Every structure is written in C-alpha cells, then in structure tokens.
DNA sequence: ATATAATGTTAGACTAATCTAATATATTAA
DNA sequence: TTAATATATTAGATTAGTCTAACATTATAT
C-alpha cells in the first residue's frame, strides 16, 4: 500500500484506462487537478515501484500489481458507499465524498465486516460493480438511455456519474436504480428524451443527463 | 481543521494535559514517537495558528480554540468506536486502531448519522465519555479497582487503556464494562487482587491491570 | 555554588508532493 | 516540409513533516 496520494493516482489511472487501456499524463493532470510536472514525477515514482509501465512520451499503463491495488481501493470505495446507504441510511447522492475518504482506511477487518453485513454485494448504490476480495468484477452491459428507441422499455441499472448535483437532479425527477421506464418521445431538435415511469408520471431529460443513465433493455431482447 | 498530523498533535496534547494542565515537549515527543526538534517546530506552527499557547522552555497549553478542536476529534474517535462495536459487531479490543483512522474523516453528516443511530450516546465502549457536539463531556468519578477494600462491591465503568493486548487480557478474564464485581482478596506481597464475578467465578488480577480498571463503588455509598 | 543531568532550541539536511518557467518532443495543418 | 499546436520533460523552488548534530537553558545533586 502506498501513500494516500499514490492511491489516488492509481485509482485515477485505473478509471481513465477503462475506456482506452492507456492514459496520458495530461488526462491524469486534469483529473487530479494538478499540473503536468507533478504527474510526471509521480509517474516516475510509481514506475519505480512497478505499479505502472511508463516510457517518456508514451502512455501510462497499470501493471498487474497496479491493477490489483486499484481494484482494492475501488472495492473499498464501493463497499463504503453501499454501507453508507444500506446500513447508515444516507442518500446515494451524499455518499461518494465520504467514500473518497473511507477508501483509504487500512483495515481488512473493517471491510470484511462491511462485506459480511451487506451479504457480499455485487453492486454499489450507483450500480457500479464491486470487485470481490480477489479483484474479480461482474461484467455488465452498459447501454445508455440514449440508445433506446421510442416505445422501448428498460430497467435503470446504473449511473455513469457520482456527482452530487447529478444525483440530486435524478432524485428531483424520481429516478432510481431498479426503476422500469419506457421511452415516450425522443426530440430530434435537442435530443431530449421523455420517459414514462411505472407510476405513469412522465419526465423529460436532456441528452446530457440521459447519456449518464445506464439501462438493461427489457422488450428488445 | 488542520492536517492529519496537526490533529494528532492536538489530540495528544489534550490527553496528556488532562492530568496536569501543561504538557512538555519531551512528553509529546515520546507519545507521538517523534524526536524533540520535530515537536518543537510543530508547536511553533500550532502556536502561530493559536491552537496552543507556548513560550520557549515553558509547557504547552491548548487554547480554547485548540481545546475545541481536540474535543471534536475525540468525539469522532469515540463515536466511531461505539459504532464499530454496536452497529458493526466488532469487539471492543479491535476498534481503537480503526477509530484512529476514522477520527480524521471530515464529514459532519457521517458523524451526525452515527450519533443518531446510537441515540446520542454518552460513553464509548471503553467507558470514556463522548463529548457532545458542543464539546461538553459528562464528568465521572474514576476510582481505580485498586482503591477498593476487601469485601467491597462495585460496577466496572471504564478502562484507562485502549490497547488491544490489555483488552484481550480482560476478555480472557471475562471482565466487561457493566460487570458487578466484589473484592475477595488483596495480596500484600505483590498487590495482586482477587475478584468474584456475578457468575461466582473468581479471577486474579495484577496491580498493573487492576489500576487500569475503573469502577463505581456500590456498597461504600 | 558549581557540576551534572535533563530538557529544549537552533541549524541544516532530507523526502514527499506540489508549483512555475524553460525546454523538448510529437502531432497537425498549411 | 516546415510552422504551429498540443503534449511532455527538466530544472529549480516551495511547504509540510521529519531527522541528526550541536548548542542552550533549567533543574538537581553534591
Ligand atoms: Mn463514488
Ligand atoms: Mn459509486
Ligand atoms: Mn480509542
Ligand atoms: Mn475508547
């Protein structure tokens, strides 16, 4: 286990690499809100610790060791979030910032107990998979709400964004993980989408919001 | 709120000052396991932040501001310990080290929720008082088990030591907070003490152990 | 009252994590 | 293919927190 700072770098490299496999110094600097030379020197350190593979002007890649470390931190983050919601009764919109701190707590006992109390959960309150103690994660299809056609029905399975303002927005629209929704209308002009909830209530979402809502199609399959 | 390091200094100054009011640089260095000059420079910083009052070669004294800060950290530590025992089902001997980390979590919401779930508790699993959100602590008499005479009966109300090895020892002797005990014998030679538990079982304790067990006399009053 | 011991301070160095300014490399666009 | 742009690296400085070695002050014990 490295320092808190090292852990945050590793975690960010992991999440940025999920799409592309490789991460650039500038991306990481943007994400961590530090300057390029700061990232440059930290990457050298992480490379010397064999957490990342790096050659100047090439991208950054986590080693197996680095990947294991990343998954361990992500596991703690997501277990913490679910615990905060399920056991402590906090809202899904307020747990991310607390989990950012709890993910650095070093206590196998603490996390084993959380895992046990939650009955070895597979997904966090935002629908993200929780790596098991070996770092294994359950794969899931991630279809965006925008990829549904008018008339299609689906279940909301995850959100691709942790930020409080985004989740507050979903709360205001009564959208939650597990909800069944049907596409009523897709606007050509601004790409906004209107849904119908199980309660028959209709809600309108911008493209930007719909994009971050992930669903499992029901009728299409 | 200062850094994690500053918080640990403030907390240690507070606990060392409980007896005497004033704390010496060397005491603090011993407690924090750092060298004298390290403490010296940190004290200067804390003085510049008005957390402590300090003049060279005099003792260190927390200011009101410093005291408030200390009580806030101690509150979080003790709430965390009780939460870990009562809600998460961990043993009183294993929670201190986790609380050392959780006490630095910055989230009023997290701690307000713990407080609420525990129904605004006054004491932690080791019998230490939990400061309320204004820093107010319930006073308690702290009579050592060694101060009882043969034949006297008392309730164990607290332990003056958080360390796992000590609490493991008490677990092995079936001693817990709330237990009613009676002094059966006090040895003159080695100052050891023999108690009888409610179960009629007798247990022998060394002076060193008995000293750290705090009780509330029943018959004497 | 002075020597000795205990305690505290200063000076200077080191590591981790950050920054700015200057420079280098790679990509893209004329 | 050269110029412009984007991206990355190096050099050198800064702050927090720590250290060792040398020196200073206070307390204690002849
Ligand atoms: Mn999160
Ligand atoms: Mn999440
Ligand atoms: Mn404790
Ligand atoms: Mn305690």
N-to-C span of chain A: 44 Å
Shape of chain A: globular
CATH hierarchy: architecture of the largest domain in chain A: Roll
Write the element-wise H/E pattern of chain A from the N-terminal end onward.
HHHEEHHHEEHEEEHE
Structural class of chain A: alpha+beta
Identify the CATH homologous superfamily of the largest domain in chain A: Ferrous iron transport protein A (FeoA)
Poorly predicted tracts of residues of chain A: none
Q: Which chains make the largest contact?
A: A-B, 18 and 18 residues
Ligand kinds: manganese (II) ion
- Radius of gyration over C-alpha positions of chain A, nearest whole angstrom: 19 Å
State the helicity of chain A in percent bands: 40-55%
**What is the CATH topology assignment of the largest domain in chain A?**
SH3 type barrels
Mean pLDDT of chain A: 95
Task: Walk me through the topology.
Two copies of one chain form a homodimer.
Chain A: H1 4-20, H2 25-32, H3 36-48, E1 52-53, E2 61-62, H4 64-86, H5 96-102, H6 108-117, E3 143-144, E4 153-159, H7 164-172, E5 180-186, E6 193-197, E7 202-205, H8 207-210, E8 213-217
Antiparallel strand pairs in A: 1-2, 3-8, 4-5, 4-8, 5-6, 6-7
Helix pairs in contact in A: 1-2, 1-4, 2-3, 4-5, 4-6
The complex binds manganese (II) ion (MN) (4 copies).
One manganese (II) ion binds next to α4 of chain B.
The structure holds a DNA duplex (30 and 30 nucleotides).
């Amino acid at each position: 286990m490295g320092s808190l700072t090292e852990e945050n770098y590793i975690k960010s490299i992991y999440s940025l690499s999920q799409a592309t496999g490789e991460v650039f110094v500038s991306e990481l600097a943007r994400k961590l809100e530090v300057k390029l030379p700061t990232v440059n020197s930290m990457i050298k350190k992480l490379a010397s610790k064999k957490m990342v593979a790096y050659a100047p002007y090439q991208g950054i890649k986590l080693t197996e060791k680095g990947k294991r470390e990343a998954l361990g931190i992500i596991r703690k983050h997501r277990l913490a979030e679910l615990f905060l919601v399920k056991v402590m009764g906090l809202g899904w919109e307020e747990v991310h910032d607390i989990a950012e701190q709890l993910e650095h707590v070093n206590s196998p006992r603490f996390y084993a107990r959380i895992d046990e109390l939650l009955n070895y959960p597979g997904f966090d309150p935002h629908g993200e998979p929780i790596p098991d103690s070996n770092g294994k994660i359950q794969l899931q299809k991630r279809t965006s709400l925008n990829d549904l056609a008018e008339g299609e029905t689906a279940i909301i399975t995850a959100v691709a964004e942790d930020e409080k303002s985004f989740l507050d927005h979903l709360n205001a629209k009564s959208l939650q993980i597990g909800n069944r929704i049907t596409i009523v209308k897709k606007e050509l002009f601004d790409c906004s989408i209107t849904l119908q909830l199980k309660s028959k209530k209709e809600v309108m979402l911008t493209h930007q919001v719909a994009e971050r809502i992930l669903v499992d199609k029901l009728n299409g399959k």
